[in-house]
Write a structure and sequence with these properties.
The chain is of the alpha/beta class and about 475 residues long. The protein is built from 19 helices and six strands. A six-stranded mixed sheet has the order 2-1-3-6-5-4, with helices on one face.
Length: about 475
Amino acid sequence: MIKNSKNRSIWIAISSTLILAITVICFSARGDLWLDEIWSIFMAELSTGPWDIFTRFQHDNNHFINTIYLYFLGRQKYFFLYRMLAVCSGIGSLFLLTYIAGRRGHVEALFATVLAGFSYPLVLYFSEARGYAPAVFCALLAFVYLQKCLDRATAGRLIIFWFAVIAGILSHLSFVMVIIAMFVFTVIVKVNNRRNVSIVRKTAEISLLYLVPLLFCILFYIFFIKHMVVGGGPIYKYRDVIGQTACFAMGVPLGKYFQIMALLFCGVILISGCLMLAKERKYEWVFFAMVLLVSPAVILALARPKCLYLRYFIVCFPFFYLLACYLAGACFRRKELVFRLLAVAIVLFMTLGQIDRLISLMVIGRGSYRDALLDIASCSAKDVIKISTDHDFQGSMICSFYERFLPAGQKVQYIEKASCMENKPEWVLTQSQDSVLRPKPELFPPWGIKYRLVGIYKTSELSGWNWYLYHNDDVLPRKN
C-alpha cells in the first residue's frame, strides 16, 4: 500500500511537471517571429507546389518538414499557428523522454521530465517555427523503435523506425549524428548478443534496419546536400560554441570560467553515466558516448562548417538529459542520504539556472519587430516609411514581413546602405544579440544626418536580435 502510494505521488509529480512544461512551451511560442522563421515562411509562400520546396530552395535554412507544414498552412495572422508543428513535436518529445526514462524507474521519469521540460535550449526550439523540434522528436522515436527492433524486428516496428529516421533527416541535417550513433550501437549489440548466430545472419539483420535509410541518404545527398547553399551568419570559434553549448545544457551563465566549469560537469555526467551503464552490461552506453561525443566530433572533423551554432547540437540535448537522469536516479536509489541529496542537487542545479532564461523567453520572446514598425508607422511623417538598418539582408527581410501588419495605406520603403546617400531614410535600426550592449544615444552615418535613439526593443538569448531605433530629428513627426 505504501509502495502504491509512493508511485501515485511520483506519477502525480510527473503529470504536474509535464503540464507545467507544456504551458511553458506554449507561452514561449507566442511573440514575434525572427529572421530564420520568416525566411522559412517566405520559402513556403514563394513555392508554387510542394515539389518546389525540394527543388527550388536548396538552402540550409529550408528544413523540409517544417517548410512543407508552412506551405500547407498558408499565410496566417496569428504567429502561434506557424509554430504549431514545433510545439506539437516538443510536447511529443517530452512524452517520449518520460517513457524512455520511465523504463528504468519512476524517479528517472520524473528527473527526465524536469530536466528536459525546463531546459531553455529545448523549450526555445520546441517553440520555434523551424525543423529542430521535429528532428528531436524523430531522434527519440527512432531510438525507441531501434531498441524494439533489436529485441524483435516486426514489419510494423521496422516501418516506424525507417519513417522516424527519414523524417529526422528531412527535419534537419544534424540528425546524421543520431544515425551514426544508432548504427554503431546496433553493430555492438548484434556482435555481442546471440553469439551463436552467424556473421552472415547478423549482417543481414543490420542491413534490414539500415538499408532503406542508407538509400534515402544517398539520394538525398545527390539531389540536395551536394548542391545546398549555406546561408551563413556570424562566425564563432568552435571552442566558444562548444563552451556555450555546455553552459546552456547545464544552466549556468556564459563566460570563460563558467564554460570550463560546464564542460567539466558535462564530462563527469557523460563518463559516470556511461561507466554505470557499462557496469550494468547495458550497451546503451555505446549509444550515449557516440551521440554526445564521438558523432559530433566526427561530423565537425569531416564537414568543417564555417558557421557553427549551438542549435546544430540540439538533437543531442535530450540524450544528455536522459543520461543525467539515469545517473541521478541511480544515486537516488542508494540507501545513504548523501547520495539522495546529491541526486536532487544535480537536477536542481541543472534546472534552476534555466529559469531566468525561460522567463525572458516567455516575456520578451525573440524580439519586438512588429511593435517597432508599428511605433515607426504611428510617428512617421509620411505614409511611405523610409527605413534602413545596419544589416541589409536581415533588416529588409524582417521589414518586408512585418509590413503586412501595418495600418492600411502605410508601407515600408527599405533603403539599402549603399543608397542612403541619395535617398536618406527617416529611420535607422541597428541590431545586436549582445544583451548587455549599451547603444549609442546618437548616430552620425556617412550620409551626413544625425539620428537620435528613440526606442529599444529587446530579445531573449540565442534567437532574435535587440533592435535599437534611431530617428532623423530634422523630419517632423506625424501629427495625430
